[in-house]
Write a structure and sequence with these properties.
By secondary structure, this protein is an alpha/beta fold. The chain has two domains: 166 residues, Rossmann fold (3-Layer(aba) Sandwich), CATH 3.40.50.1970; 178 residues, Dehydroquinate synthase-like - alpha domain (Dehydroquinate synthase-like, alpha domain, Up-down Bundle), CATH 1.20.1090.10. The chain contains 14 helices and eleven strands. The strands form three sheets. A seven-stranded mixed beta sheet has the order 1-2-9-6-5-3-4, with helices on both faces. A two-stranded antiparallel sheet has the order 7-8. It has a two-stranded antiparallel sheet with strand order 10-11. The longest helix is centred in the middle third of the chain and has 21 residues. The structure holds nicotinamide-adenine-dinucleotide (NAD) and zinc ion. The site of zinc ion has 5 residues, from helix 11. Zinc ion binds next to helix 11.
Length: 358
């Protein structure tokens, strides 16, 4: 069994994960167990969950699919459902889904009656390697990402790669963006393995998922409340989140999956790293080539770019009105609290636009 034990939380990956969950539930005397799903994970993942746990006295709460439902209104719906179905402080919520379900479910659990226990069972690659681990839970405020939330660890995170069999292909690549980010901020050796991620080779896929979970967990354990080191997990996200928000708001722009927006953010922020901190140009070009081979290229005109830059003011790393980036001097070597001029930001978009992938 691959297991990480933190103070009040464990992450258990692959073999033995269900046994761990079943033992932990049967020794915990929960008054009621709720399972939060979206309509897709209800269809594809709930049957596996029921088979693996043999829990029959559970209440299922279903929310609609997609980032646009990661809202306070959906949270209200879930709080009401919990209340109507008699949830009390000894109840457990199991979040069975992608990052939207684990982010929102963790937030609802952490606030209902001032906080009840929850378990994350991530079913998308992105949620397995990133969203379900580390205790950040929350919802969007309009199109602004993750503006409302809390940091609270789940009791357990149960990672079973079996769920990936039904995950649509574009969501596999979306999850790869966070794995690539983990490689960029921590290790070139790991980065080089992430490019070839595929679920056709399950043992290797499980190994890479486990490595990403460990990278994230190591960082979060050293800096749970994001005073410094944890900010590195936001690499690619300062611009990535602004692009994601902008595209969510503008019907003429493609709706980007989280990982697709982050992939653009990774290119832009690696370019900025090369401009400001001498990140190798050769590596920049190689990384850009590889990212553009996996993720769609989006066109931004001057108006889009100005509007995206305006959205940076909502980034949660900002203090005293300055926008603070995480940048790299090399793969695995980061610098936090970097201030970047608008001129360099625009040059980064120009680099992205003019880059001809080979
Ligand atoms: N809390 C964090 O630290 C953190 C980190 C990274 C990302 N996030 C958040 O995660 C979210 C993105 O997560 P996501 O990409 O998993 O989105 P998602 O939850 O919307 O899942 C993607 C899609 O896949 C479907 N799905 C999930 N598992 C499936 C399965 N096994 N089979 C078939 N369909 C399945 C879902 O129903 C959905 O349609 C964003 O809101 C992002 O902000 C949070
Ligand atoms: Zn992310």
């Amino acid at each position: 069994m691959k297991k990480i034990k933190r103070e009040n939380s464990s992450v258990v990956c692959h073999d033995g994960c269900w046994e761990y969950l079943n033992n932990s539930i049967s020794s915990s005397n929960y008054s009621k167990i709720f399972v939060l799903v979206d309509t897709e994970t209800k269809k594809h993942c709930l049957p596996i969950f029921l088979e693996k746990t043999s829990l029959y006295e559970i209440e299922i709460i279903t929310i609609p699919v997609g980032e646009i439902y990661k809202t306070i209104e959906t949270s209200l719906f879930v709080w009401n459902a919990l209340s109507k179905k008699g949830a009390d402080r000894q109840s457990l919520i199991i979040n069975l889904g992608g990052g939207v379900v684990t982010d929102l479910g963790g937030f609802v659990a952490s606030t209902y009656q001032r906080g009840i226990s929850f378990v994350n069972i991530p079913t998308s690659l992105l949620a397995m390697v990133d969203a379900s681990v580390g205790g950040k839970n929350g919802v969007d405020l309009g199109s602004l990402k993750n503006q409302i939330g809390v940091i609270k660890d789940p009791k357990a995170v149960i990672v079973d790669s079996q769920f990936l069999k039904t995950l649509p292909k574009e969501h596999i690549t979306s999850g790869m963006a966070e794995m690539i980010k983990h490689g960029l901020i921590s290790s070139e050796k790991y980065l080089n393995k992430t490019w070839g991620f595929t679920i056709d080779n399950i043992p290797e896929a499980e190994d890479l998922i486990w490595r990403s979970v460990r990278i994230k967990n190591d960082i979060v354990t050293q800096d749970p409340t994001e005073k410094g080191l944890r900010k590195t997990l936001n690499y690619g996200h300062t611009l990535g989140h602004a692009i994601e928000s902008y595209c969510l708001e503008h019907p003429k722009k493609p709706t980007l999956l989280h990982g697709e927006a982050i992939a653009i953010g990774l290119i832009l922020e690696t370019y900025i790293s090369s401009e400001m901190f001498g990140f190798s140009n050769e590596k920049l070009n190689e990384i850009t080539n590889k990212l553009l081979a996996i993720f769609p290229k989006v066109s931004f005109n001057d108006y889009d770019i100005d509007e995206i830059i305006k959205l940076l003011i909502f980034d949660k790393k900002n203090t005293h009105g300055t926008i603070q980036f995480v940048l790299l001097t090399d793969i695995g070597k980061s610098k936090t609290n970097c201030v970047v001029s608008n001129d360099i930001l625009k040059k980064a978009f120009k680099f992205y636009k003019n880059f001809i992938a080979k």
